Amino acid sequence: MFWNNGITRRNEHRLFLLVTVMLSAMILPSFTIHPSLPNIRLDELLLFSIFGLNVLFFIRNRFRFREKEKEELRLQKKELKLIIIIFALLTISYFISNFYGVYIKKAGYYGLRDVMELVTFFKYFLVITLVLSIDIKRAEFDFLSKAFLSGIIFLLLFGWGQHLNPLNLNTWLSPYFNQQHWEHLITGNPARVLGTFDNPNFFGIFTVIALAYFTVRYFFGEDGDKFPWKLLILIGLVIKLEFLTISRTALFGIALLFTVLSIWSFLYHKRNKKVIIKILALFLLTLLLFLTASADFFYRLHEGLDFSTSTSFQGHMDRWGAAIGSIWESPVFGWGTQKYVMTTLVDNEYALYARRYGFVGLAIYLSLFLLPWVQGLKNIRRKAGELGRGVPFDQPTQLIAAYIAVLPSIFVFNFLAGIFYNLQLMTIFAICMGLVYNSLREKPDLINDSAVKS
Fold first, then answer.
1. Which DSSP string corresponds to 66-105?
2. Average pLDDT of every residue of the chain
């Protein structure tokens, strides 16, 4: 709401802030303020600082919006209302479950780590509403796309650097991004690339998110009579980067993403020759990269599929069993956060969230992800009815389609790990949510470019 006041009034300032937040989440590590306090990220510092300045400007203006600001809020009204409702419900669920857990279930005391849960909610609210507040037209979209591509190129180079370890990079640079786990994750058996993330699985699912946008552009963008070779090569490089993480969950996420988009494009483009060629090219590229993967990749893949000996699978089952047992003891409101009492290592975000907030809270959690998905799907179906099938997607529709296509992969990932409580990864995905809401908002000067260039 308050992004429309003070120093972020101009659209360029908001866009610059968004790009800074996005690149920070993609390539920068967290840093320590004090040993007794949680680490903080640059994007968090920027978001909360500028929000605080906006509140001060709002107070200085005697809690009144200017006419221009009122008009901006009017254009965002429908989507902003949905966002506020969802985060209000998350907050209410937080207070009810913690009160119930502490005072009714006597589960333990309430500490600083539990308060940080609210800070997490609020950060995501700020990210989504920041994206919503920007009037994204052709120029803004091009700038945002180039910034995202620059971050991807950095991660490609850095990921291959971790894999090849030139000039002993993994000794003098990689620890800067993750001092606690880098040695085990990079030089382990098998060695796994983790990029700038604190876990190769999180880096792997980030590549799936990136692939969603590239592959939507590949299938649904306007290319004329030319085949998008450059885009196919970029998709191949990102797939290979995921293979270097050796994340089995992300590998399945890519397979699910490509299946969804291939079927969708095949039906949408009325089974024409061009889309069949694109599907075959993507399939052959993926198959080639898969068959030429390293021996370590196949070793880890085989180890994960052998449930009788897989330590990963057995560890997941043990943690799920403990979590499910506590869920059934308090299924409606859960136990509250209780981070000092109950372990946060569940390896299943649905079970973790249900244990904290019960099935009521879990329903709200799912609504956070599903609401933009449902709204976006309705928008695409409406446009398809108006324009007919086979028409290339304009820029807003591509953003919506990418979110629709990638959410099933995210839901699978949350079943085996989780995105919501990883501040780095969820910040990027909150931007994706914000882009969907932004694409749905009313835009008086929007130019629907059906030929958005990559």
1. -HHHHHHHHHHHHHHHHHHHHHHHHHHHHHHHHHIIIIIS
2. 87
